[in-house]
Amino acid sequence: MRSHHFDKFIRNLMQGFIFLTAGIFLIFYCTFNGIQKFDWFLWAAGIAVIINTGLFFLGSAFVHKVKADFIRRQRKQREEYQEYTIEP
User: Fold this and answer.
1) pTM metric for this prediction
2) CB distance 11 to 67 below 8 Å
3) Which residue of 29, 48, 57, 80 is 20 to 30 Å from 41, comparing CA positions?
């Protein structure tokens, strides 16, 4: 049975990669397209927000992965404990 945290891990991981990839593509777009002198503040702010959002989602995915691993380990230990405590 998959835990809710594992589902959130997958979703946040994909969102993080999408945002980071979009931020990197925007950096290359701005570099090769030659943006105007006064527009670079807006582009830089937008790219920073996109990349930080991607990093936030990746960090959140890491936390949910750790939680899912702890839950799985706890279930396994509980099952092993129940096997040893049941008397025939």
Assistant:
1) 0.76
2) no
3) 57
